[in-house]
Write a structure and sequence with these properties.
This protein is of the alpha/beta class. It is built from 12 helices and 5 strands. It folds into 2 domains: 171 residues, Ribonuclease H-like superfamily/Ribonuclease H (Nucleotidyltransferase, domain 5); 75 residues. The chain starts with a helix and ends with a helix. The relative contact order is 0.18.
Length: 261
């Protein structure tokens, strides 16, 4: 049934993944939450409109969530299997949205070679703000406006031009901590250069952030598995997460009806 519902739903497919550390009898483990959804495009906005007032995207028409404690390569294989079950086509209409960990892009590339990769814009913003605090001082009134202007330049001008600007900016500073701050920002963005097409995605009404999966990590995983400092066997952690994923995916009633039949 999930496959049939997913295929019939309107919109373009999006894949999100993020992890939550969970206390288990084998130590702290990364429980990875994955969501494949379909969402219709929202209203197109310019970078300035997005910066001034943001935007509200349509809710996904369908969403399928699953969670696992498996290692990176096994996660990737599970993504591919789920994509096949749901009938996800490997083309530019599929979006992969994540926080930029290298292994995620590596595994995603093995599953979907033609998809659009999207580095979460809010993770990028955090790195730019951290750089500004070093350049101007933690409590300097200049740091935030500088960071906001830099973020706007990245979205407006694109990654290629912005990375060139960062290289030039580094030469402006003589102090090594400031030079290093700019270099660190550059080195964070450079490997993700193919996932920073924010202006183009805003113009087509598509998401540029990972708020969906971050919210899911809280409501599906943290709110239950971290309740009262709980400690779980790995098996039970995955089982509880699976039940909560069923509910999140709006498949709870169907699952139990099928089990009772």
């Amino acid at each position: 049934r999930p496959a049939a519902v997913f295929k019939k739903a309107a919109g373009e497919p999006e894949f999100y993944t993020d992890g939550v550390t969970v206390n288990t009898t084998e130590g702290w483990r990364d429980l990875r939450l994955n969501v494949m959804d379909k969402r219709e495009a929202g209203v197109a906005v310019t970078p300035k409109q997005w910066a001034d007032s943001g935007r509200v995207l349509p809710e996904p028409a369908v969403r399928i969530a699953w969670a696992s404690l498996a290692a990176c390569q096994k996660q990737g294989r599970a993504w591919k299997r789920m994509g096949r079950k749901l009938g996800v086509v490997d083309d530019e209409n599929l979006s992969i949205l994540a926080d930029g960990q290298r292994w995620i892009w590596d595994q995603a590339a093995l599953c979907w070679k033609k998809a659009q990769w999207v580095l979460d814009v809010f993770h990028v913003s955090e790195h730019i703000h951290d750089c500004g605090k070093i350049l101007f001082g933690e409590k300097s009134p200049q740091a935030r406006p500088w960071a906001e202007a830099q973020m706007q330049r990245l979205v407006e001008d694109g990654a290629v031009q912005y990375l060139k600007d960062l290289q030039a900016l580094r030469a402006v500073y003589a102090e090594e901590p400031k030079r290093q701050a700019v270099a660190s920002l550059h080195d964070y963005l450079q490997p993700n250069i193919d996932s920073l097409w924010y202006r183009q995605r805003l113009a087509t009404g598509r998401p540029i952030g990972t708020g969906l999966i971050e919210g899911g990590c809280k409501t599906i995983v943290s709110n239950r598995l971290k309740l009262n400092s709980a400690r779980w066997t790995p098996r039970h952690a995955e089982q509880v997460a699976a039940l909560r994923c069923l509910d999140y995916s709006r498949l709870w009633n169907d699952y139990w009806a099928e089990r009772a039949a």
